[in-house]
């Protein structure tokens, strides 16, 4: 018998299920997210910092990949050996607008990837303009061995201990097995309880399962099963695994997933019959960095990396390859040339929808809108998809006489597959979607009646055609908008077919309307480039009739923005850079900021998130977004407050800071009534119009208005910043994005905005953990070049 299960483990697991029940109508899905700190990680955006490495800029005609290779070699120096090397990731790319090449590097030790050994190098004209690195710089371990477990700090247990401390600060009872009663602070306390419940039901599982330490490190099945115990929300699955551990191990079917031609990458396996996984699990061996007990040095821990797709989650997890099999880190991917033409594309479709700019039914009425696709972003429209890339035709043959593209009459196209998902399952191809026929006029009524609670869901489902059409329309508009600001094929956008323009294909967004897996929420799963993103939109039972989240554009935009920020940060093939803490919070914050910017108008106004769906004037955040500190007092130091551990709370601080910064840029440059750039000319070139400044040679196009410029800087900053960025890293990346785009003409304007909310150059944090914590100091100073004499500092201290 491989596992000797103690009674205490079962009791602890069952008791954990009682933790965190509350009267809130929001159904929260279980989600895991934690990992080790990287105190040695850096992001350098100053030429002085880069020069100190001894790197000499190369000529503008030198291949930027070569520049990056030389730079990495110079930075690593004596660390390079037969046992320690690196590889340039294939998702590196050049931004066609800015001319910056974003090179992504992965560290290799003993022939294995260091999963969190990342370097991103930004190259322009032969120069490295910035770089971030979390490369391991310690002693190389003996292959296929691990340091004694008791010598290391284990993120899982430490994370759970800190969560319990935070809960205690909020005056919540934390006796295992007792239901927690939430009082006046229930909103913040409930989130912490949910985090604890999700992550900490089985903190001692690795010790409780008596797996012999002599087990073969090549057998990853025990480690995978232990992860599934921690990950599954299903008590029956937990009890089945714990009661029949060996049987589940033996049931697994493993197949080698390596390529025929060796690519130099780690061998990968596919594992089928994994309990509660909806698709075969991907498994590969790697290293991950873990601090020692003192926290003064890092060590490489041999792990199995798993990609586990479940009903409500899609995990990237690292579990120690040797017993005890501890979970070291886990990220939940669920969280938001000439123009090609097709002469057979039919007349544009039309939709009866809340048009772009109307956030929700409280702001305006529906109207008939044309399929206003952008010919650069969606060259053949929203309803055309190549036969070869259509998943509904997989395995079928079709006549070449039909042409290359299939023109659909439903909400099924190259960018988005939109349909109902009332059963809340993972299937989507055969789910219902409206068919508008040859006319492609998606005109459906929307007039839900007030009913009792029992019939409210059925009443909402009567208008599913309207809902799906709206979701399809909004999602395609977002796709086209983000494309024009640089979220294109090579940077990892979501499309089934990429028109020969690079990047990985077959990853259109699966957009599920009225998803039956929950209420009062929405989520987005972002796997690496080449795998479909999955968005689930829910009904909200906050009013009668029920309110449909699909009809609130801000929620849809927020979710789609998770796909944007995850693919742009750290490169399109690395979905693990925004998992938790400040970086995870910024993933939420960018969604709020972009959604708020899209709905804003020339006449300034404050905005709440999710106000209509939640039936709350203040929305679903702690504060509405406002320049008035009496309305939204958020500053960098707000992150120290109890209740600001969750990524949504962290995110709203970041979104508020960006909102304040953007208003300063708007004050300087004015406002554009449309965020969409001009349509290209017949030769594919984009005219300046009243949108861009006059073109200057080969320099990048620069939006001339404040709101469009800020939109561009935020997206460009995502491309520049390092994997697992802090607030400081993301701030510096935005400032450098302006340097690249405008020569730095907004340097002081940007710093003034950040400093207004405490993120000036003198801001600091001490004792920060990967998930939060620490003591922050607001920084209100400005760089010396921006200070006005004799008025210094410009902004008062706290």
From TrEMBL:
InterPro entries: FTP_domain, Fungal_virulence_M36, Peptidase_M36, Peptidase_M4/M1_CTD_sf. Residues 85-135 form the FTP domain. Zn(2+) binds at residues 336, 558, 562, 588. This is Extracellular metalloproteinase. One of its GO terms (cellular component) is extracellular space. The keyword Hydrolase applies. It is found in: Secreted. Its cofactor is Zn(2+). GO terms for biological process: proteolysis. Binds 1 zinc ion per subunit. Keywords: Hydrolase, Metal-binding, Metalloprotease, Protease, Secreted, Signal, Zinc, Zymogen. PANTHER family: EXTRACELLULAR METALLOPROTEINASE MEP. Its EC number is 3.4.24.-. The keyword Secreted applies. It comes from Collybia nuda. Transmembrane segments: none annotated.
